[in-house]
Amino acid sequence: MKLTINQLTVILDDSNGGILSLSHPKARQILSVAPEQACLLDVAYPIPSFIPMRLAARFSRAEISGEENGAVRIHWPALGPSRRHVPLPEGRVSAT
C-alpha cells in the first residue's frame, strides 16, 4: 500500500504491514528495505526457554485498512515469533 502524508511517501508491505520505503521530495529516498526485513513493530518477548525471543510484524500477517483522512489502520491478530521451533505460552499477542 502506498500513501502520502505531509509529502512523505510511505510504502507498506501488503502482507505484514511493515514499512518498505520512505521518501520525501526534498530528502529523496530515506528508507528502502526488502519485504522480509520490513517491520513496523518489534517487541521483546522473553520466555524461560529462549530469553531473546522477539515478536514482530515481519513474522506476521497484517490486516490493513485503506487510507482514510491521511491515516491507515494496521492490525496484527497475532504477532509472530522470531523462532518458530521454540514453544510459546498459551494465548497470543495482538496489536493495532
Task: Describe the fold and architecture.
This protein has 96 residues and is mainly β. The chain has one domain (2-81). Helices cover 0% and strands 33% of the residues. It has no helices and 9 strands. The strands form 3 sheets. The protein has a 4-stranded antiparallel beta sheet, with no helix packed on it. A 3-stranded antiparallel beta sheet has the order 5-6-9, with no helix packed on it. A hairpin with a 2-residue loop joins strand 1 (2-5) and strand 2 (8-12). The model has no long low-confidence stretch (mean pLDDT 92).
Short descriptors:
single chain, mainly beta, 96 residues, 0% helix, elongated, 33% strand, 4-stranded antiparallel sheet, 3-stranded antiparallel sheet
Give the overall shape.
elongated
Order of helices and strands: EEEEEEEEE
**How large a portion of the residues is in β-strands, by DSSP E?**
25-35%
Helical percent range? Answer: under 10%
Taking the sheet with the most strands, its summary is:
4 strands, antiparallel
Count all strands and give the number: 9
The radius of gyration is 15 Å
- Structural class, by secondary structure, is mainly beta
Number of domains: 1
Major sheet strand order: 1-2-3-4
Low-confidence stretches: none
Alpha-carbon distance between the two ends: 17 Å
Count of individual helical segments: 0
pLDDT averaged over residues? 92
